Amino acid sequence: xxxxxxxxxxxxxxxxxxxxxxxxxxxxxxxxxxxxxxxxxxxxxxxxxxxxxxxxxxxxxxxxxxxxxxxxxxxxxxxxxxxxxxxxxxxxxxxxxxxxxxxxxxxxxxxxxxxxxxxxxxxxxxxxxxxxxxxxxxxxxxxxxxxxxxxxxxxxxxxxxxxxxxxxxxxxxxxxxxxxxxxxxxxxxxxxxxxxxxxxxxxxxxxxxxxxxxxxxxxxxxxxxxxxxxxxxxxxxxxxxxxxxxxxxxxxxxxxxxxxxxxxxxxxxxxxxxxxxxxxxxxxxxxxxxxxxxxxxxxxxxxxxxxxxxxxxxxxxxxxxxxxxxxxxxxxxxxxxxxxxxx
Length: 343
Fold this sequence. Notes:
Layout: E1 2-6, H1 7-14, E2 21-28, E3 31-36, H2 55-58, E4 62-69, E5 81-82, E6 90-95, H3 97-110, H4 118-125, E7 127-132, E8 158-162, E9 166-171, H5 174-180, E10 187-188, H6 191-206, H7 214-218, H8 222-226, H9 231-235, H10 243-247, E11 254-261, E12 264-271, H11 292-311, H12 322-326, H13 333-341
Parallel strand pairs: 2-6, 6-7, 7-8
Antiparallel strand pairs: 1-9, 1-10, 2-3, 4-5, 4-12, 8-9, 11-12
């Protein structure tokens, strides 16, 4: 089912919706970020992609898990209690298809038959994903090579096509339909609107030229790639800054720490990175990944080899290209994948 909305009316209607906490792309300086919509916040849907993915909306960068007391006078001292949390009905409006697809990848870690993270799953279930197709992919984009695409629908409740002064919205789920009912002024789409949208889709897909040898890599034995003499060369430029993992929408590593102040404590979950030496440091002092090449190898083996070997469904990457754009030494996951495939 398709509906057409005038852009101005669409944006104005978002401010009138009280049932959802709405996140929209907002330009700050040179970059766009997803921020909560409120008075004084102006959405800007004319962007390539946000600097950071909306991963933190479901998986906060820092999150209080539990709280406890260390006071000996407290009858409940040393007992962990779940920190108060809120799980509002929310919508991410304007999310790119690659970022919505990334949530499906991360879902395998936080919501699977063996383990369900209660906070991640509640936030994910309470979120409506209103996608905005990508008319102009960048040279760093390779979403079509990893199972997604500029107008892919996986993980979305609505996919919007930017037709200039109008949005064409395709409803993909009941959650999406419920959200669109809150938007004023929608009308039934005409065949020429849908035809224009299809042309935008094919044109955008044709712009993605990246060549990445994932099938060849999948056919390699794990130890064959793991023990290949390529990792010193690949890791040489890396400065272990960790920015690739920070901007990546599919990285899910975290650390848990206790922080105490004046007899009260919090157990906090923070994003972490396999690129940091301390990430694998044992209490004994031993570190199985003390050398840089081992950490670099772990990152790319996990995303391109371990993950597909375990789940048999693509790589742990949505092809957004953020890691390529922000790397200070110009490391490119596409070229590294090809080196791994051609050993």
